[in-house]
Amino acid sequence: MKSDHRLQVVIDLVLLSVLFWVAHYWFSRHFGLYEDDITIIPGAFKMSFGELMRFVYSYITQFQGQGRPLHHSFIYLFSWVGWRIAGLWGPFLIGYLITSINIGLFYWLLRRVTNRPFALIGGLAYLLFSADTTQAFLTLSLGLQPSITLILLSFHGYLSNRRLLAYILAFISPFYYETPFLVFLAAPLLKKGWNRSLLKEFLFHGLILAVMLGSVFFLRLRMGEGRVEGLTLHQMLSTSVRQMILGPLTALRTYLSRPLRPVLVINLQIAIAMGLSAIAIAWILWRAEPIIPFRLRELWEGLKPRRILPLPDEVRMLGRLVVAGLVMLVMAYPLTFTIDATSTGGRNTRVHAAAVMGAALLIACAGMFLLMLLKAWGRRHVGTVALAVFFALLVGFGFVLQNDYVNAWQYQKQFWTELIPLIPDAGENTVVFIQPDGLRDVYQIQANTWNLPRILNQIYAFPDSMTNVPYVVRLAPDWEKYILSEDGKFQINILSTVAPGDYFGEVDSRQVIFIETASGHLVRHTDVLTINGREYPLKSPSAPVLPSLPHDILYDLLIASN
């Protein structure tokens, strides 16, 4: 590799990694724990090294974690390491590094099959992929992104004719997270030379992946992984087909809809971020090696049934990559059984995580085609500016997304700081109901929602002798219609509350602390609660319990830090 070529690669990777930090991690010091994060990760923080190793060993050897033993194991491992490096910020730094490695691997993959301008556009489209808004969500950045790393390494291994290594890496990936696995089907299509033997190679490659996937499926089935056991063949096939149709359309559509969001909520920070990003992107795209133009007449004549001229080589290259990108994008969805592929907000957008490779490749094809056309007309600068503005707007959306993360963490800290003084007597068998009307939410990351029951016992260390520790649960909209059981008790179920199923059951009203909002603040309702004209006595304030308990890991993060 020539020295100037190495310098180009270094410049490109630095730009891509810096832009990724700006778009997704600029405010990461103010990020917190959300939903699954706050359920899982504090446990890793508290472990000793020996406990961590025993946990990882047990998880892998006993095939725990919904058939993804490496997923949970490395979430705990990276969280433990990050916490000891930089506190709560540490795991986010590790998550950033893992995804940055993936960006670099994808950029280099495109450099191997095309040229520098194409790889740059593809790298930008990859790091600014906006269908998945969970890039900074720790249980996904630490547990899902390594699966994408393995698939990208598998692509490189395949193109380097190290097929055995490529298949081994690909086979490991479902044990981190399964959805990226089938994206590897497109590997033969990334070869520069397409010939008659390609179809045979592609079919043989697909057969190998089918055997590997079947092995994973039956292993999970044998180990009793519930989500696999609960699906019939017809359900799996019909769901996969639906996801493969709707998922790609949703992923590509977000490239058009997300850039509008920062324009609607623009402020000085977003404007500066977008302005500087546009300048940096335009500069590096303009300085990239010359774009080879082609003329519309050549394209038109090449597309006619009776061709007068062959299609330009560059167009045929783009055509091959479009096919590869479509296969990669569609194959990101067959294994997404539990989440609707049309999701565009919140934690459910992880359904699109594996689509980043195919979507970015297609956007790179579209961007390169635009530059080649405009170059032929002597207007390459117009295309460069257009692409720079487009990607800068996606950087702006990243700022909007980060603000949701910051606000969600702040809302959680405010909620618990205000709630704890109102429930000092929450003891054994106590359930705290939260009237949802006064709770503040954000769109892209939920705060104070279904995971509330799993937090109080991480704020305080309850004694082992307490059989039924108190917990907090958020009531659902119209909860009054569903809260009463036939015997007059309060029932916690999917209709009356927003809570995990393992907390469903019945509770006597006298064990319930009812919290509502008045004048913007939480207040405890101490009178009887009237439902359908009938009065139900609530738990009366009694001797404090919580102040006498030792603080657990979340006390410092949620209460003291606020």
Topology of this protein?
Layout: H1 3-25, H2 36-46, H3 49-61, H4 69-86, H5 89-113, H6 116-127, H7 138-141, H8 145-159, H9 163-172, H10 197-222, H11 226-229, H12 233-257, H13 260-264, H14 268-287, H15 296-303, H16 313-330, H17 356-376, H18 380-419, E1 431-434, H19 456-459, E2 471-475, E3 490-492, E4 497-498, E5 505-507, E6 512-518, E7 521-525, E8 529-531, E9 534-536, H20 553-560
Parallel strand pairs: 1-2, 1-6
Antiparallel strand pairs: 2-4, 3-5, 6-7, 8-9
Overview of this structure, please?
The chain is α/β, with parallel strands linked by helices and 562 residues long. The chain has two domains: 3-407, no CATH class; 423-560, no CATH class. It has 20 helices and nine strands. The strands form three sheets. The chain has a five-stranded mixed β-sheet, covered by helices on one side. A two-stranded antiparallel sheet has the order 3-5. A two-stranded antiparallel sheet has the order 8-9. Helix 19 (456-459) links the parallel strand 1 (431-434) and strand 2 (471-475). The mean pLDDT is 91.
